[in-house]
Fold this sequence. Notes:
Elements: E1 3-6, H1 9-20, E2 25-30, H2 37-44, E3 48-54, E4 61-62, H3 64-73, E5 78-82, E6 89-92, E7 96-100, H4 106-111, E8 116-119, H5 122-138, E9 140-141, E10 146-147, E11 187-192, H6 195-198, E12 208-212, E13 222-227, E14 245-252, E15 257-258, E16 267-282, H7 283-288, E17 307-308, H8 311-324, H9 329-335
Amino acid sequence: MTLEFHSNVIAAFQSIQTRWGPLQSVDIVSGYIGQYATNAIRRLCTNKVRIVFGLAKPNSQVESALFEELQLLKRFADVKISKGLHAKVYIFNRQVLALGSANFTERGFSKLKEAMIISDDPEVLGDAMKFFEETWESAWDISRITELPPTKQSRKPPEADPGIGTAFVRPNPLFQHSPTVSLLHKVRICAYPAVWLDRPDGFDRTDTITWSTGSGTKEGDVQVFCVSMDTKNSTLPQDDLRVDSVHSIWISVRDSFPVPNNTRWPTQSKFRLAVKLNKPVPKAQLIEKGILRKARKGGFPRNFKGKLLTEGMVSVLTDLLCEHNPSQSKNIFNALQLAHIQTGV
Length: 345
């Protein structure tokens, strides 16, 4: 049985991820919820997430920034509201409980002096899960939250962050818009002629494949497969939505290896399919977002090495793919390795 005390909330969550991760489910009860909560959630868990939070205002109205945040949060978590709620309870994988003073806000996780206790005692965990389920069942649907009408009166940001009900929250390494969280694995983007969608051994018709890659590819690295404009010897018409677009995301299941006497694809690896996009994302949008540079020919990385993406590019790509494929958002986040808190951030 584990019983730990932490005076640093991030350290407490890191301990949980180390000992009980990866996180498959998170249930949260919080008096308040902060802006950028969606980014925090996707770094903690990309699977089943439920959140109940309290109302900061009796009229259920919030300012525009947080209203938009809640609309985004609904894509990645089941969310409810409960008037008068002040508890702070976090249950991970239905195996371990974190109980303390910190709300699910930027200030609660880094700016205020908070404390948290971790326990996997079965009796205590059972009581906490019962509390969560009762709170969840009696809570209201998030549709009760409405947006405050805009006001012409300007005001300075308050120094305190009361959470829901204010648009002024300063980001930290967990609650942030521009991620500085280190990726667990490299992410490489590559493009291939459309003919590979026709072939029985191509990447449109299988869940595992041995494919060309860069020499530095390691097990767990990510390769984003795209289809180039080259439709030569293919049955696909030029206006097929898969042409000149992002097609799928694959995970390497072994380190790359050399292929003797193969000058065209000298380095390969075995990959498993993580996500085949329901709606391919056009290359033009990747160029617009700065992920790729506009080129006279093609624009996609054309050789087998592809292009390694920076952390910022991966974050932008993730948001773009999710925007086009909202029903696949959790799988996209999971595949691109963003659900991770790096020690020391």
